[in-house]
Structure formats: structure tokens, C-alpha cells
Amino acid sequence: MSLVFAGVCSHAPGITGRAAMAPPELREPLYAAFRGMREKLLAARPDALVIVAAEHFANFFMNNMPSFAIGMADAYEGPIEDPDWLRIARTQVPGNAGLSRALIQEVMQTVDVAFAEEWSFDHGIMVPLHFLTPKYDLPVIPVNINCQGPPLTPLHRAWAFGEALRRAADKVPARIALVGTGGISHWPATPDSGKINEAWDRALLERWARNDKAGLLSYTDEETYRDAGQGGFEIRTFISVAAAARGAGQIEHYSPIPIFAVGCTVATMQIAL
Amino acid sequence: MSLYQLQKFLYDLNRDTRVQEEYRDDLNGLLSRYDLTDEEHAAIAQGNVGLIYVLGANGQLLMHYAAFLGLPWPEYIQAMRNGVATYGPVRAGVYAMRTRMDEKVAGV
């Protein structure tokens, strides 16, 4: 059928795990934005949700790190983290191995991608699902871009991967929703956790909303690390969604929430031809 | 190579309940399977989150080890600061501390 929905959102574990430590006046508008994204997602009547995340050593390690990976199973489990720490109960999430296989075969025509018939979801996928499909009743196809273990996937390859995902989504009979998850600037899992470069975030989001390919691909990892922390490497997921959707983005919500360790973002993007 | 082994240990521990059981039952036996320096071995044996941070372990691995040890979030953040205060700046990786020792950007 086609790509029927595209968006991006934050996935920081603090969004659920440290919810009680956040000021309600910051937390509740974010949660409302997630609910709004859920409504738009459901209104698109997707058959499956392709979720492009930047995972954190739940499945892939530096002994064999793929630039890109796509899950190919009928079911997944998550979260791999302590459920009490993340405050999301461990559960089974439906997949669709046949649909995964069809998407992978098409993506492979232009981008080399690893596939995985086992995949444990970490917070990069579980936090967004907690808000977007809280009953875990929509088949999910997990995707990973290496944003964690240098050398990282080049930005222009993340763009090419997004283009390949779009081509694949348009070739299968199913209605595909696509969500990229990650932080923008952030310094998670360091003593700097909570530091956020709001100006950098807003500039990135402006480029993303304009679907400005040249602007999005102009960042170097050295600049990103300096200005946006190692968490900023996750812009690869946003870039792949822009490449797939091709349209203009709408920033539904952006607010720096230090205890969540990220500028919390919810955004959707038009699907252009 | 050794930092890789330290991180591999954390990766295995974080995701495998059998390794977690072995950690509790026979830590030295578990650690013998990893090619660790004496400093790394001692850091793990002591549950020294601050030193493991300074040694350059990826924060996404260390964060869950700290949770496994039962450290609440504020104590985990402070343990990393204490590590820098005691052992000096982070020696490797991309999780270096940039803030001042007394700068608590998220209030913890």
C-alpha cells in the first residue's frame, strides 16, 4: 500500500522511569503531546508500525555492530531493562515476520541491512510504545541505526536508509506507519545528565521541519558531540524519517525537561510523493 | 582491548539473568572469563561505579549496572562525579563529564 504516517519522538527512559521526579507542569503537556501523536497515528489506520530507534546495547554490541538492522519476528519482548527502573511492565509485542521480510528484501536493494529474528526492546522502543500503542496491539517492526558504538553510521547513509524504507513501504500491500525515536541534544548517563542545548535543538528541528536534506546532513560527529553531546548522535533516526516522508514536519511539542535528560520532542511529518 | 572486555562484561550482565545469578554466586569465576586489567577487576569487585565511569565504560552500559547494584538515580549520578573527583577525568569513550563538580543541571 504505502507509508501512511511519519513522526519522531523522544525515547529517554526518564520519561517513564523518573516521571515522579518531574514537575507536572512540564510532564503533563509532554504526555498530552504523546496522546495527540497516538491519535494521529491511529487515524492513519496503519497495519504495522516501523519504529526506527537508536538502541543501547540491548541486542547489538561492538563484537558485531551493524550500521542498520531490522527485526524479522512475529513477536518481541521488552523492556530488557528492569521494569521497575523503567516503570514499564515486561510484555510481548506483536511483530510481523512476513512483512518484515518483504521490507528487508526491498531495502537491501540499495542499503545493506542486517536482519534479526530475535530482538529485545529497550527503552528506545518501549517508551514510545508505552504512549503510542499502550495495549501493544499494533504489529511493530523494529529498526536500529548505530548511534551508539563508534564508528557510527554516516548521516548520509541514514538518509539513504530512509529513502529505502520509503520505497519498501510503498511496495508492500500493508499500510505502514513510521516513527523515529531518539534524543536531540543530550548528555545521558553522565554527570551532565539534564544538560540540554535548546538553541541547537530548535535549529535542528527547524531543518527537520523544512525537510532540509543539506542542512540535516551538514552536521559532523565532532560538532554534534561538542554541541549536543553523545546523545545527539541519535539525530540519525530523525534524518531517516525525513528522507522517508519527504514532506514538511510539524513540531507538536518541544520542551527541555532536565530530569528526563532531553529536550522532549513530539513531531509529525507529512507524507509527500 | 581491555576496555572492550570491561564493556562486554557489562553488556552480558545487563541482558542475561544467568550472568546476573553468576555475579551473585561466583563473581570471581565470572570475571575470569574476561581479559580485565587489575584495575578493572577491582572496580567491578568493589561495585565502584565512579571508577568504571572514569575508565571509559559507555554510559548506556554503566547506567544499567548501577541500577542492578540498586543505586537510586541521584546516587548513581553522584557516584560518577565522585569517580572523577577521585580518579581524574574520563580516560576514554564519549561519555566524558563536561559540567563542574557542583553543577547539578537536573537537580540531582
* Topology, number of strands of chain B: 0
Question: What oligomeric arrangement do these chains adopt?
Answer: heterodimer
Helical content of chain B, roughly? 55-70%
- The mean pLDDT of chain B is 95
Molecular shape of chain B: globular
| CATH arch. level architecture of chain B | Orthogonal Bundle
Structural class estimated from helices and strands of chain A: alpha/beta
Order of helices and strands of chain B: HHHHHHH
Which CATH class of chain B? Mainly Alpha
Total number of helical segments of chain B? 7
Describe the structure.
The complex is a heterodimer of chains A (273) and B (108). With 273 residues, chain A is α/β, with parallel strands linked by helices. Chain A has one domain (2-260): 3-Layer(aba) Sandwich (Protocatechuate 4,5-dioxygenase, Chain B), CATH 3.40.830.10. Chain A has ten helices and ten strands. Chain A is globular and about 45 Å long. With 108 residues, chain B is mainly alpha-helical. Chain B has a single domain (2-87), classed as Protocatechuate 4,5-dioxygenase, Chain A, CATH 1.10.700.10. Helices cover 63% and strands 0% of the residues of chain B. Chain B has seven helices and no strands. Chain B has helices at residues 2-15, 17-25, 27-31, 38-45, 49-55, 59-68, 73-87. In chain B, helix 1 crosses helix 2 (17-25) and helix 5 (49-55) packs across helix 7. The mean pLDDT of chain B is 95.
